[in-house]
Design goal:
The protein is of the alpha+beta class. The protein has six helices and 14 strands. The chain has a six-stranded mixed β-sheet. A six-stranded mixed β-sheet has the order 5-6-7-8-12-9. Strands 10-11 form a two-stranded antiparallel sheet. The chain binds one DNA strand through loops. Its cofactor is Mg(2+); Mn(2+). InterPro entries: AP_endonuc_1 (IPR004808), AP_endonuclease_F1_CS (IPR020848), Endo/exonu/phosph_ase_sf (IPR036691), Endo/exonuclease/phosphatase (IPR005135), ExoIII-like (IPR037493).
DNA sequence: ATGGCATGAGTATCATGA
């Protein structure tokens, strides 16, 4: 099976692209979406179900919103981080064929001196604490999503330019390492990868054409899943579409 | 260069993103 994550930056705008992408990638068993920006009553459930998918989603107006689209029935759906009071809709988890899928839209943080940055670090701490317990319950666990963290300088097109900015700060990178410290492994880094492979490019300044991007969308795998992972790729083709999302899908292949 | 796009809410601009 393949599992994937894609920040679509409005599912209303990107729904045709998502359906096309799922049709073009039939090996993808589950696709995690972020920034759907839709209240639940406006989620295009019928469109996905008519195309044969099972869906789990939670969203809000204008901002955030996450969903899992799967080819088989999703079970054990959990919304938000249990025990963490949060107005924002940024996390949904579900089980598919014995694999626990956690779909997360980690806060951006805006800037290092922002309240949103403090919220980002609190959110990450709560996520890490919850996942520690979740990993005991579910040895086959994947955390997929928009992390809004470039884990290392090689994940940044111009590390000097980005120094002191959100997404690359030492605290955020330490929070990412706290996740890998639970035993989770970055699927992308399990394999040899081309230099300067990114998952996000700013809409402004021809960033995609210049490949001025960041790798901030990730799939982390529990030890048992990492063992079965045979590949991980970023599908930058989607960024060439008309009205593209600024993020590209990340896809991991799992055996069995 | 605190802009540069894009999206949504709402109908002029503003908040947010990364």
């Amino acid at each position: 099976m393949k599992i994937a994550t894609w920040n679509v930056n409005s599912l209303k705008v990107r729904l045709p692209q998502v359906l096309d992408w799922l049709a073009a990638n039939p090996e993808v068993s589950a696709l995690c979406l972020q920034e759907t920006k839709l209240e639940d009553r406006n989620f295009p459930r019928a469109e996905f179900e008519q195309a044969g998918f099972s869906v789990a989603y939670v969203g809000q107006k204008t901002y955030n919103g996450v969903a899992i689209i799967a080819r088989e029935t999703l079970g054990e759906v959990v919304v938000n981080i249990p025990g963490f009071v949060d107005e924002q809709k940024r996390l949904i988890a579900a089980t598919l064929g014995g694999v626990r899928l956690v779909c997360a839209y980690i806060p951006n943080g805006q800037s290092l001196d922002s309240d949103k940055y403090a919220y980002k670090l609190e959110w990450l701490a709560a996520l890490t604490a919850w996942l520690k317990a979740e990993l005991v319950r579910y040895p086959k666990l994947a955390l997929l999503g928009d992390y809004n963290i470039a884990p290392e300088d090689r994940d940044v097109h111009d590390p000097v330019k980005w120094e002191g900015m959100v997404l690359v700060s030492p605290e955020e990178r330490a929070a990412f390492r706290a996740l890998t410290g639970l035993g989770l492994q970055d699927a992308f880094r399990l394999f040899e990868q081309p230099q300067k492979t990114f998952s996000w490019w700013d809409y402004r300044g021809f960033s995609f054409q210049k490949n001025a991007g960041l790798r901030i969308d990730h799939i982390l795998l529990s030890p048992e899943l990492a063992q079965s992972c045979t590949g991980c790729e970023i599908d930058r083709q989607t960024r060439k579409h008309e009205r593209p999302s600024d993020h590209a899908p990340v896809v991991a292949t799992l055996k069995n």
